[in-house]
Amino acid sequence: MKKKQTDVDVIMPKLVQGEKAWFVEYCCFCPRTNKLEKFRVYKGFKKLKTEKEKIHFGNEIIKVFSKQLLSGWRPWDHTVYLYRDEIQYKSVTNSFGNKKNNSSHLRKYLSDFLIETKRRVSKKSYETYQGKTRLFCQWLEENGYKDLRVFEIQNAVVKKYFNYLIDTRKLDKVTVDKYCQNINQLFKFFVKQKLIDKNPVFDIVLPPKRKDMAARPMADDDMKVFLNYVAIKDEQFLLACLMQFFLCCRPGNELRLLKIQDIDFYAGVVHITQEDGKTGTRKITMPSALIELCNNYKLSDYPRAYYVFSINGKPGMKELSRNFFYRKFIKYRNELGLPLIYKFYSFKHTGAGKLLESGATLSEIMSHLGHTSLESTCAYVKRHFGQKSEKVLNFRPEVLNGIIKF
User: Fold this and answer.
1) What's the rounded Cα separation, in Å, for the pair 360 and 353?
2) What is the pLDDT of residues 39-61, one digit of tens each?
3) Alpha carbon distance 305, 283 (integer Å)
């Protein structure tokens, strides 16, 4: 039942001498719960010894809270927050410090969510959460919702945001779905913190699939052409391509930030660290062919702290830029005139496909790819390689005999 205009909005503070403690009590109507909520202030009374001191102290508290309540303040409002702003861009944070005073609590609670998220996910995943949360905050602030309290962000506002992602930013179905998952996690956090009673992320209509630009596995002939070309042009990049192929790791951090010390040449294992791995710490078995390749490059002769891939085409102390492998691949692909659907990530998909063809089980492929569930691996295999059937492969209907020469 909604609150009527004639209903009481505030019951002013009063001093109460309870059985066990003194306190100041007041009530306010809360639009989130649609009820008159009771609030009590106990702090400070225990230190006072005499009844006179407690009465005087209580009256001072009553004056302060009465003034605030009459001015429109409510206990769920925070006039000034001192918090670490995880929404602000790093360049701005570095210039002005990362402690922010802000009269709006929106950024405060979005930052609380990001701080909690940072504790439980990898650095790469956190950056994804931060980017999507930052865009949501920016949209709210630019569209007149800056002063909304968290519980006032209803389903209608959330739907407007997703319409913006679809209609203005022209994001694809898969990308919008990822934003939906991110914002859903944000409001689940708010429910857990009891800031809201219901998650407003529901009935989100995703756009149709537009153009599939995901990297495809490479055909054998195209892969041979590419690798033979790169072997002449760039030996370090050849090693990067083959490591991506054999390890099926993620090129952004797992391959780019790989160090000599992460490779156990004797056990034949590559260690992906908690910081660099998308799914946390894991060990990737090295095929014998990759061990031989590393021996040919004499990687074990370099200092253990060196990055496997660095400047000047050899291991070194300086890490490569985030898009280094991507730009290199595009350059050589275009020089060879290969299909645009091939990307550096194609080597991972190609390696996974060859592993599947070799007879590896889905469980083995899941472990090698670093997936967290068998369902993810099944979806991955279906998307990139389809579902092969011996009956389909051997399909030669007799009705075509004499019409088509097989």
Assistant:
1) 10
2) 998 888 888 889 999 999 999 88
3) 19
For tokens 């005999």, the residue is 401
CA distance 345 to 326: 8
CA atoms within 13 A on the CB side of 115: 11
Residue type, 335: E
Q: What is the pLDDT of residues 200-219, one digit of tens each?
A: 999 998 888 766 567 888 99
User: Rounded to the nearest 5 degrees, what angle is found at the Cα of 265, between the Cα atoms of 260 and 266?
Assistant: 145
Q: Is the Cβ–Cβ distance between 355 and 366 less than 8 Å?
A: no
For the entire predicted model, the pTM comes to: 0.55
Altogether, the residues listed in the chain come to a count of: 406
> Nearest-5° angle of CA 60, CA 65, CA 68?
130
Q: CA dihedral defined by 307, 312, 313, 317, rounded to 10 degrees? A: -10
Interatomic CA distance for residues 298 and 309, integer angstroms: 13
**Count of Cβ atoms closer than 10 Å to residue 296 Cβ:** 9
CA distances from 339 to 218, 222, 278, 348 (A): 10, 9, 28, 17
From residue 256, alpha-carbon distances to 54, 103, 306, 321, 324 in Å are: 65, 42, 12, 8, 9
Pick the CATH number of 81-192 from 1.10.10, 1.10.150, 1.20.120, 3.30.67: 1.10.150
Q: pLDDT value at position 334?
A: 95
Mean pLDDT, residues 239-253 taken together: 89
Q: Where in the chain is the domain with CATH 1.10.443.10?
A: 220-385
CATH among 1.10.443.10, 3.40.50.2000, 3.30.1380.20, 3.60.110.10 for 220-385? 1.10.443.10
pLDDT at 91: 41
Supply the DSSP symbol for 168.
Answer: I
* Cα separation values, 357 from 132, 346, 351, 362, 369, Å: 37, 16, 10, 11, 15
Report yes or no: 259 and 308 within 8 Å, Cβ to Cβ. yes
